[in-house]
Amino acid sequence: MLDVLRRVVQEVNGAADFFEALHIIVTRVRGALDIDVCSIYLKSPRSGRLVLMASEGLREESVGRVEMDVSEGLVGLVASRAEPINLENAPDHPRYRYFPETGEERFLSFLGVPIIQQRKLLGVLVVQHHEPRRFDDEHVSFLITLAAQLAGAITQAEFTDEIASETPEISHVNIEATGIAGAPGVAIGRAVVAYRLAQLDSIPDREARDIEQELARFAAAVAATRGEIEDLKRRTETVLPAEERALFDAYLMLLGSDSLAQRTEARIRGGQWAAAALRDTVRESVRVFEDMEDAYLRERAADIRDLGRRVLSHLLPDEGNDQEFPEGGILVGEDLTASHLAEVPIERLGAIVSARGTGSSHIAILARALNVPAVMGVADLPVSRLEDREVLVDGYRGRLYVNPSPELRAEFRRLVREERELEEGLRELALEPAATRDGRAVPVLANSGLLADIKPSLNSGAEGVGLYRTEVPFMIRDRFPGEEEQVEIYRQILASFDPMPVTLRTLDVGGDKALPYFPVQEDNPFLGWRGIRLTLDHPEIFLTQLRAMLKASREHPNLQILFPMISTLVELKEAMVLLNRARDELLDEGFVIPMPRVGVMIEVPAAVYLVETLARRVDFLSVGTNDLVQYLLAVDRNNARVANLYDTLHPASIRALELIAEGARRAGKPVSVCGEMASDPAAIILLLGMGIDSLSVSVSAIARVKWVIRSFSSDRTEALLAQCRLLENPDQVRSLLNNALVQAGLGGLVRAGKN
Fold first, then answer.
1. In angstroms, rounded to a whole number, what is the distance separating the alpha carbons of residues 630 and 575?
2. Which of 12, 119, 549, 551 is the most exposed place for a label (fewest CB within 10 A)?
3. Which of 377, 327, 330, 323 is nearest to 354 (CA)?
4. What one-character DSSP code corresponds to residue 377?
5. Required cofactors, per record (predicted)?
6. Which domain holds residue 288?
7. Among candidate residues 705, 749, 706, 699, the one with its CA nearest the CA of residue 421
8. Mean pLDDT over residues 480-486, rounded?
9. Residue 113 shares a structural domain with residue 218
10. Is 116 helix (H, G, I), strand (E, B) or coil?
11. CB count in 10 Å sphere of residue 2
12. Catalytic residue positions?
């Protein structure tokens, strides 16, 4: 049965359209199970009724015409119970309903299984036979597995034109797709599918007629690509930060390295024509990355594919599209990269939607830096069918809507207008210090990982840098950066904010952040070799970074060092030993360097219960709520299947944060929050009530965070926190806090559908 299932799935994936896929399923299942009938009923989103959409064995004229409520018939019973129904003699069942137009009176045995996607009932898959028989467990398991595969195909079909044009009963508006929130904001505009370069996989095998000529063609294509990339780099000087434009330098390096050019030339000399030689080289490079589970490494594979397609576009006839990017256009792609973004006039870009990727993808990081809404990882997104379709994007919840109703369109226009007015109204407020209504100062600092964030952070009113992710400079290189390279990076950010504090987090790779030149393959990377665990095991890397940080602080004593992923007191002691060793080495070399303030990042549940012990040995604590909540709830927020379970307002998350705040207070040490929770207006109320000393957020969120802080008194936030302690689920907590925001005049921060 497994082989049959694989063949069916392969054929379905290769079907020309949705209805051909349905026909393949009913035909192949009927033959594989040696039965008389196989049928598919789908639930109409408009009427909620089950409609017969395909059948092999029932009368053809009944397809598209027979329908029933979920409370009717055996098919309705499968749908309402959401579990298989296996009957030896169907007419004897009290829920049996006869449809004369189908001719099914001849069939006695019945097996139906529900088709479900993300808890949503899509339809029912049914098999029938004329003789009384109870289908065995193998048949039941086969249909359940096939129904699960079919669910993805149906979800994708909701975006296509076939349903709307050929089956009016199922056509509907406001087609919704769920992905991962990549960058906050809302947008409405026409979809523009990312510029499609020549497709490497379509290149056929062919012998080179003239090897020297093929080498010359390839060399010319590489030269043209090099010129194209250099031009893109020049064009983006005022748009993308220098750190991000380093990606184009990496592309240029690959063009001249053994990674691409030399191996392609070797294949040409072996007799392949240039296009196929390039194809095989790119495949070879990409295959290793695509097989890895690590998200960051998969994203680097996308960069290699992108570069290969660019070279190929100069080997083959031009496939370009000269159409001007529309104002407010929504850039949509299978796997968007920084170079796709570079080809778009940023001032016209309304939002970004990528079928692949996560909230930590390079393109998502750029979107947040540019304050452009983004939705990532939209599974089964039929990108090619979205060109010029009207799309609504909700970057807060990771949703997009196609074919919107007039009512939904009007609602999004209102949200877009309100966001624009809100941003304009908060510009002056952002430059003022943040304090509660009773005068308690709560500094708002910036999260950063790019040198180009410096100017926007300063202009946004940031009171320092609460978290500088030092792993970003490591990720964009093809090797570990040297000590002096790191010194220059750290010096720039320290100097720019002096005398305001700058917190540099030591190298935090592993989990979903890996170095392409230092791959770590693990079955469960989030529970593996990451953060401080990795750097303690490699003191040569750790000491180099600590020395660079300390040297950068010689003239700027505003440095604060933060150790990530601490879970034991031993780890903290070992890290402090290396920090003191690095400082002693520099003192011996004649450098006069003050000892910086040192902090621990609380992001592992174990650290929550050790918080007072840890706090007594450092100068400050910083709570990384992104990882902490993931670990507490056992939810990967970058996994679309379970991302809806990730909620920072979960009662367990709130209690953990209270324990942290209480432990820090007993130790007499300040505590900040630097995760995304710090920019959630509802969560800010609770953090203020707990007595959190400072917040560190993305640059685009600073003004809104300050607005919330200035709108509440300490007594009010403490009272709201006490009320939330009595609530049992996150929805109740958010509803209470959103009501408080509205009462305080901050209704503009409470988005529709966020409750």
1. 25
2. 119
3. 377
4. -
5. Mg(2+)
6. 200-315
7. 749
8. 90
9. no
10. strand
11. 8
12. 362, 674
